């Protein structure tokens, strides 16, 4: 279904540009269904996105038309706001760079331009939304990561289409694009237990719902195996600038962990630095696992075993979901499957 829809959309995009004069009437949905042998849903979705991109326009009761050239040249109302939290994205640049690349690539192809806003530097949520809606410049917004829930509430209130990426906001009608964080963490803990580890430490920050979901997966999997969650080897308030001090809680306890599971690969790399400073070898003395599957883990020596988040797919899904909303389509949240990547940082005790 997805391949058919994407192929049809690109075919119709080229036809609109090459075969039809500006203002010309475009074939009906029924004609396109018969010509290409696809379903009504596939045709409708392709047309909606081309309308959102400004290639086509729909007139109620008259049909679909190729947009006039004068309309195509209009710059107003063609911007997308990309809203990020600076203090989160700077610490996870490797992860978000690929997501943002795909978002930019897909939305640029749709004729959109971008403006970046750091939510922790742009005033209150209401002030930021007022700025986005003044003058009608922005067609929609993409909210990256740790975004105040009040911001989503304000965007819903004013009716500006938006998508939340790598964060879950429990509010009806909000489209969130996330990974299966709980299941991914569970898979990693299962992997460690299968290799004889029962003292498994966990390191994260309290900033993100994604980390909370990973922590829940960690806890539930331990409990399912009859292993108590020991807070002595859990550090949920990890700070990069205080990595040595924050990890001392785990490493200096009466029964230190045989493995440490970091909530992302950047934290995993910080764990490596602290362990090396203590003269500990990975994985001979202690095993380390991460999450995200970005390039940081591949630069660790030994390379970090991790759970891979499909970042490019996440960016494409977010851009597509936003275009569909702009075209008037109702869009459900998207949860992407994750994949465990086995490398060299985990030692089998059994």
TrEMBL record:
<dbReference type="InterPro" id="IPR000524">
    <property type="entry name" value="Tscrpt_reg_HTH_GntR"/>
</dbReference>
<dbReference type="InterPro" id="IPR036388">
    <property type="entry name" value="WH-like_DNA-bd_sf"/>
</dbReference>
<dbReference type="InterPro" id="IPR028082">
    <property type="entry name" value="Peripla_BP_I"/>
</dbReference>
<dbReference type="GO" id="GO:0003700">
    <property type="term" value="F:DNA-binding transcription factor activity"/>
</dbReference>
<dbReference type="Pfam" id="PF00392">
    <property type="entry name" value="GntR"/>
</dbReference>
<dbReference type="Pfam" id="PF13377">
    <property type="entry name" value="Peripla_BP_3"/>
</dbReference>
<keyword id="KW-0805">Transcription regulation</keyword>
<dbReference type="GO" id="GO:0000976">
    <property type="term" value="F:transcription cis-regulatory region binding"/>
</dbReference>
<keyword id="KW-0238">DNA-binding</keyword>
<feature type="domain" description="HTH gntR-type">
    <location>
        <begin position="2"/>
        <end position="69"/>
    </location>
</feature>
<keyword id="KW-0804">Transcription</keyword>
<protein>
    <submittedName>
        <fullName>Substrate-binding domain-containing protein</fullName>
    </submittedName>
</protein>
<dbReference type="InterPro" id="IPR046335">
    <property type="entry name" value="LacI/GalR-like_sensor"/>
</dbReference>
<dbReference type="InterPro" id="IPR036390">
    <property type="entry name" value="WH_DNA-bd_sf"/>
</dbReference>
């Amino acid at each position: 279904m997805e391949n058919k829809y994407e192929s049809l959309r690109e075919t119709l995009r080229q036809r609109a540009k090459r075969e039809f004069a500006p203002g010309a009437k475009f074939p009906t949905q029924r004609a396109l269904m018969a010509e290409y042998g696809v379903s009504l849903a596939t045709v409708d979705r392709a047309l909606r996105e081309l309308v959102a991109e400004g290639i086509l326009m729909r007139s109620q009761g008259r049909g679909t038309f190729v947009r006039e050239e004068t309309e195509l040249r209009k710059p107003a109302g063609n911007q997308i706001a990309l809203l990020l939290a600076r203090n989160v994205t700077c610490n996870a640049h490797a992860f978000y760079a690929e997501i943002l690349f795909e978002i930019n690539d897909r939305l640029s192809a749709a004729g959109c331009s971008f403006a970046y806003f750091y939510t922790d530097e742009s005033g209150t949520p209401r002030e930021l939304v007022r700025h986005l809606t003044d003058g009608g410049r922005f067609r929609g917004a993409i909210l990256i990561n740790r975004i105040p829930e009040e911001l989503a509430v304000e965007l819903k209130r004013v009716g500006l289409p938006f998508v939340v990426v790598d964060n879950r906001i429990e509010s009806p009608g909000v489209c969130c694009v996330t990974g299966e964080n709980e299941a991914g963490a569970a898979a990693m803990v299962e992997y460690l237990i299968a290799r004889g580890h029962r003292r498994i430490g966990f390191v994260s920050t309290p900033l993100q719902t994604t980390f909370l979901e990973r922590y829940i997966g960690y806890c539930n999997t331990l409990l399912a195996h009859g292993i108590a969650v020991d807070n002595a080897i859990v550090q949920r308030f990890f700070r990069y600038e205080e990595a040595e001090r924050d990890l001392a809680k785990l490493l200096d306890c009466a029964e230190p962990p045989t493995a440490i599971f970091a909530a992302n690969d950047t934290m995993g790399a910080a764990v490596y630095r602290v362990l090396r400073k203590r003269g500990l070898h990975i994985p001979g003395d202690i095993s380390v696992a991460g999450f995200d599957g970005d390039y940081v883990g591949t630069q660790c020596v030994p390379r970090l075993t991790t759970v891979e988040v499909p970042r490019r797919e996440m960016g494409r899904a977010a851009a597509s979901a936003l275009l569909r909303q702009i075209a008037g389509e109702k869009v459900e949240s998207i949860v992407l499957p994750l994949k465990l990547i086995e490398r060299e940082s985990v030692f089998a005790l059994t």
